[in-house]
Amino acid sequence: MASSAASDPFYVARDEVQSSVDEMSARYEEWQTKQASGANLARSASFDELQQKLKEDLQILLYVSLSALFRLLMFFTRVSLIYTFCALATGLEYFRRRGYSPLPFNDIELASYVASRKISSSGTAVYVSKISVKFDDSGQKAEFKLQMSSRATNPGRSYTSPWLKIGFPPTCVGKVSLRASNKAAYDEFKRSLASEVGGEAVFKAFVLRSGEDTEYSLHVCAGGTLGKYCSEIPIH
């Protein structure tokens, strides 16, 4: 217990200040005694020296007090920062164990969020029974795979896009840009889907808020942008 108190910043600061106060008090009592003696102190060198030491004691006490106060403030600041960090780490671990993650705020964060992941869904479009999107390690390229439903021209047939360079909207929500290095393969992919759904040779994607704005979803539209052409894939 004694060793614990000796290392406690509060007690260390208290002892330093108390030591300076005790030393100054002893010198002040000596000064009072000489004042009450009735002796002629006007030319007393020892009395002048005593008064000078009292002034120095006052300066030392002020310095020690401010120094101790500063060290205490620094100590409590560190404790506060450590507590905040631990609380934040605990909170993040709590969400991580339950499969939750903070939502991205911009396109860079969203790309990092989906990097190396594969997301999928089924039964959200008229002509597509299953859809999946596989992202590369940077989250800036994606491969789309769509399986046709019973309403399509060739039920059960699957189509896989070439790897597409994707650009998420700056605020995460909005149209996603899709560009292919192999344009011929991409055009053939779009034409094949158009023939399956009876629509146009277009392939588009959008990021929207979903789940009462608690998550994002990727809407992939093949053949047009009407609801019947679009599949919704939760991003979580």
UniProtKB/TrEMBL annotation:
Record domain Syntaxin 6/10/61 N-terminal: where: 8-59
Keywords tagged on the record: Protein transport, Transport
Annotated transmembrane regions: none
Main location class: membrane
Highest taxon of source: Eukaryota
Subcellular location per the Swiss-Prot or TrEMBL entry: Endomembrane system
A biological-process GO annotation: Golgi vesicle transport
Official protein name in the record: Syntaxin 6/10/61 N-terminal domain-containing protein
